[in-house]
Amino acid sequence: MYSPDQLTKYLTHISFPVGEHAELSLSYLTELQKRHRAKVPFENLSLHYSKTHLLSLDPQDIYKKIVDRNMGGYCMEQNTFFGTVLQSLGFTLFFTGGRVSDAAAGLPGAGYTGWSHMVNIVTIDRQRYLVDVGFGADGPTHPLPLVHRHISRGISTQFLKLEYEKLQQHSDPSQRVWIYSHRASQDTPWTETYSFVEIEFFLTDYEVMNLSTMTSRQSFFTQVVLCVKTLLDGHGDTEGVLILFQNEVKARIGGEVSVMEKLQSEEQRIKALEKWFGILLTEEEKKGIRGLVTELKSKS
Question: Which one of 36, 117, 142, 182 is the catalytic residue?
Answer without folding.
Answer: 117
